[in-house]
Specification:
105 residues, mainly alpha, Cytochrome Bc1 Complex, Chain D, domain 2, binds heme C
Length: 105
């Protein structure tokens, strides 16, 4: 009985940890699809619209050498034609997006 409960708690804890990690990844991807993909493309290659506004591929060396903080700050405050998202997304969402974008290359 004791072991059963312990096992149950371990399984429940693991499920919670796994689920929260999965949700974190899902949320950034969903947000990206909904708000960023139309300019930055599904895999970080800018779309025609994005390119015409001056967006670079996230694999471009100029972007790769930016820090996570810089990527988050551009997302937050915008830059030239890049819209600002600080009023639309939470700081956590923006930080997750910076990491997500970094993975697109
Ligand atoms: C309306 C088109 C548009 C949308 C939507 C958009 N961006 Fe951008 N983004 C741009 C443009 C244009 C630039 C280039 C700005 C510059 O350097 O002049 C840019 C630049 C960036 C950069 C800096 C690296 C680079 O490619 O120059 C990051 C990071 C970024 N965007 C993230 C995001 C994220 C995350 C979202 C969604 C929350 C998003 N963008 C939505 C147009 C867009």
């Amino acid at each position: 009985m004791r072991l059963g409960i312990k096992g149950f708690i371990t399984a429940a804890t693991l499920t919670t940890v796994l689920a929260s990690n999965l949700f974190a990844a899902d949320t950034a991807q969903d947000t990206y699809k909904a708000k960023c993909q139309m300019c930055h493309g599904a895999n970080g290659e800018p779309t025609g619209v994005g390119k015409s506004m001056g967006a670079k591929a996230f694999s471009d060396p100029d972007v790769v050498k930016m820090s996570d903080t810089e990527l988050a700050s551009i997302t937050s405050n915008g830059k030239n034609k890049m819209p600002a998202y600080k009023d639309k997304l939470s700081a956590d969402q923006i930080n997750d997006l910076a990491k997500y974008v970094r993975g697109l290359k």
